[in-house]
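SEQUENCE-TO-STRUCTURE ENTRY
===========================
What this section holds: a protein sequence and its matching fold, both as plain text.
Tokens: labelled as protein backbone structure tokens, with as many entries as the chain has residues.
Question of interest: how does this chain fold, as expressed in backbone structure tokens?
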Amino acid sequence: MQFCLAVFRSRNETLYLANLLNMSGYRVAVINTPKDAGFGCGISVRFDERIFEQVKNSVFSKPFRSFGGFYRVIVEGNRNTYQKIG
């Protein structure tokens, strides 16, 4: 199983992106950023990798100042692997 994260340091910006995507018909969730991702404290928008381009376009079309990057999360049993992407 795998999914993607858009990582932010700002709760307001995370919620703004999640609402923007939800209003566009995409299913996303707001989650605490896993410590294993190496990004420190923060929250993220979790989404299916199939909508990566739409999420990326949404992020780069707005002036998000707390955006930290995109990560692919690969779940293998009890272990998660994080890869910075795009």
